[in-house]
Model the fold of this input.
Amino acid sequence: MRDYGAVSYDYFLIGSFQRLAHASRPDFDGVICQMKNEEKPLLEMKSITKLFPGVKALDNVSLSVNKGEIHALVGENGAGKSTLMNVLSGIYPYGSYTGDIIFEGGVCKFSKIKDSESLGIVIIHQELALVPYMTIGENMFLGNERGSSMRINWDETYAKTELLLKIVGLQESPYIQIKDIGVGKQQLVEIAKAIAKKVKLLILDEPTASLNEMDSKKLLDLLLDFKRDGMTSILISHKLNEVSYVADKITVIRDGATIETLEKGVDDISESRIIKSMVGRELTDRFPKRERNIGEVSLSVENWNVSSPLQQNRKICDDVCINIRKGEVVGISGLMGSGRTELAMSIFGRSYGDNINGKLIINGKEVQLKNVKQAISSKLAYVTEDRKENGLILESTIRENTTLARMDKISRNYIIDKDLEIKVANEYKGKLNTKCSSVEQTVGNLSGGNQQKVLLSKWMFAEPEILILDEPTRGIDVGAKHEIYCIINDLVSEGSAVLMISSEMPEVLGMCDRVYVMNEGRIVGELSGEEATQEAIMACILKKDGKQNKEMCRV
Amino acid sequence: MKASENFLNILKKNTMLLALVVVVLLFQALVAIGGKGSMFTPTNITNLIGQNSYVVILATGMLLCILTGGNIDLSIGSVVALVGAVAGTLIVNMRVNIYLSIFICLLIGTAIGAWQGYWIAYRRIPAFIVTLAGMLMWRGVALIVLNGLTISPFPQSYLNYFTSFFPNVDDKAATLAISLLIGALACAAFIALQIVSRVQKLRKGYAVEGLIGFAARLALISAVTLASFFMLGSHNGIPVVLFLLAVIVLAYGYFTQNSVPGRHLYAVGGNEKAAALSGINTNKAIFFAYTNMAFLTAVAALVCVARFNSSAPTAGTNYEMDAIGACYIGGASAYGGTGTVGGAVIGAIFMGVLNNGMSILGIDANWQRAVKGAVLLAAVIFDVTSKQRKAALK
Done:
């Protein structure tokens, strides 16, 4: 029996508290360092091979993680990162793969997730496993309840939750429901939950995928703090700047095989170096160039106001004025919850919000878009940020998804011409280089990047003149991102106007001709391509000043 | 190698059809061993159609409701009773013109559907609750209309429309000949349509199935069809209600697979938010599904009163369960978005064969219920696990 789990848990807690109490006391940090400095790796995965019928998902993969380090796992979508983590956590039980897992010196034969968790290996998945209608406290010890099985000790539950929340730096009452806090805070609750399970090896799968820069930074700094307290973590991420920021070692996986492990301070761990290793070639232009050919104003939004449908008196968009020209890519930058998505959706046929007022002018003519159908026929398209929830019908085929927004184009008298539909779907499959067995493949079985391409096909088929892209490259790999940037360039060179909402700063800076900065429902800045830098955008957000908004409406 | 792979694929796609064939053969074996004759007697085939006509009609309607998001309509059994009661009152008691009576009955059905559909689609009251309320309400109204009594018999002129046979002649040979002719015409039409579509596909350069498989499929379907018509012809001829079923199944099959509003139903059930953001009026699609359900229920009610030659206050009890079961056995997803009219029909026949076979074997009615329940569960478990296995392979 392993008994020292509890000790290290308590030790970890004490360490964290000491950090909170005496953040600047160096002698204490020294003690922690001594305790954790062991040369033996905490985790070793040796020549793991995992076969699926017809596919070798993992081919002789090895991974070695030392105690107290942050080990990043990078690779394109479908490279095998998740499969490897599923092997480690016991989702794929012992026997379904070959190779050895050695944790703390002992060989592990997990047959279910509980087995790995009992040793202190905890995975936080990209899709958070929290129950929205339960409180933070109830979620914290879900499946791990305090007290006896016949009587839950709520006092202990909430007292411990309060402690755990303090450790992760979350200032919320443990009695608040999960649905009432944002994704960033939910992520912190998940981490606190992992600590409650006496975690020794914390695995985070794309923890910042749905966080904005500021929340991401906070989360990464928390990881660094934990590292100083002796925690070991594995970080899976597509965001290479974050990887270079926190990781001590970076293991690159490509096509189910380990390519190399880079060490901070020893190897070059710049983004371009990692990308080269990930895709197996040098990606010279992360953001492909295009010829700037900017025309007249295509869409102009004036004095746009939107209230929250839940709280009528809360303004989500406050007197917003923006315009986009033909052949222009305009970015909207801002923090999560600044009202960017809500602005886009309210413009797109009032699909969000109440009490919408303001003027919409398309090609010099004022229009009223009362529903999505009118928006589509006015040549507007909105590509959602959440392709699974709001964009695609996952159990339908690529063909059916492609034509969904404009079925009138492939039908006569409401009767669908299926042959034409197949032809159209194949055309877009070729144009966007979607990887699939055929257009009859179910969309739910595609990788994230290919799903995004199907979603783009759907809206390109709608032949929009004004295309609103909401987080167009979220959760997809470097190669697919590049392809999507090329598609955007093609669209604007054909004269479309693109409004791009993105939380990834490099993308906004690399792709946009002009950037609006949005904060708390207002436009707080407008920067030309030359003016736009990460610092300038953050400065606009922090300068909580409504004046600029008014000035810009005069343009 | 390739051919056997193709064969396996065809089997995988038609698991429920295969299960149906197995069940039919199983009962045939049991019946034969028990010395109780055969499942394939002309009389029995005719009975099978008569007994299950209403299930097929109701399952078709129910499928559209299930498509929109796994919602079910619980009220249809009571609507059958209510529309039947109105039909009895109008036709038997008040001697109103038959066509006018049928029209009024269909109108009442549609109105009930629109009423329920309005609350479900536009006010977003859960379908389960609205139709559960309907189940109680319409049964109550049916009892009020009938005053708790059964109305019968219906005039022969009414019954002719639903329970008679075609051709309605006394000559056995002529009956058989005309039945076979109609069967042959149906086959010819089917084969012609298939060939035209194949030629069109080839001309446009699309992939088509192999020639041998194509021919084998056509031959098999034609043979089964002709054999069935032969059976019917050697009994009393073709039941008139079969024509009604053919029209409904073909029309709704075409509607769901080839029309824009049909596609909308699938989209709404597959992902309502995505459908709404694609410019689809989701409320309208849901409203249509429930209104249509009650319309088809009225049609089924007219068939039922003719079959039983009476309007009874207890008519239609548990019909909703038959229809729902048929859809799920036929492969419709309990979450909406997948399922076909063809599947629902197969499901209905499956349930029908089960009933029929067990009755011939003389199995106790209470046992029959238990077996049907177990089969429904088994069918859905089979469907779900085979999908999970398919997903795991990816």
